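JOB MANIFEST
job_type = single_chain_structure
chain_count = 1
residues = 104
[input]
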Amino acid sequence: MGKIHRQYSPTFKAKVALEAIKEEETVIELASRYGVKRWKKTATDGMIELFKDGRQKGVGEKEKNLFIEELYREIGQLKVELDWLKKKSGFVSEGESFVYRPSK
């Protein structure tokens, strides 16, 4: 039968990763005690993100907000165009469905 994949809480993972970083025990000893092995690398790689310049984080956030604004602007434009087409084609919205009413 195959191995059972265990799931650990983030708190437990952080505890084991910190022990590995302290290097009071070898990674092999920690792996045999806890049954895990790659959290030290994950923790050290993740630490880089913690110490990045805050101004760099804001740049990505600003770009994201500009993109969202652009999408909302495009949605608004498409709604206006759709309403215009409905009006010109004679389709009228009644609740969830559309009814064709030819113009007189």
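[summary]
The chain is about 65% helix and 10% strand.
Residues 54-89 form the longest helix (36 residues).
exit_status = 0
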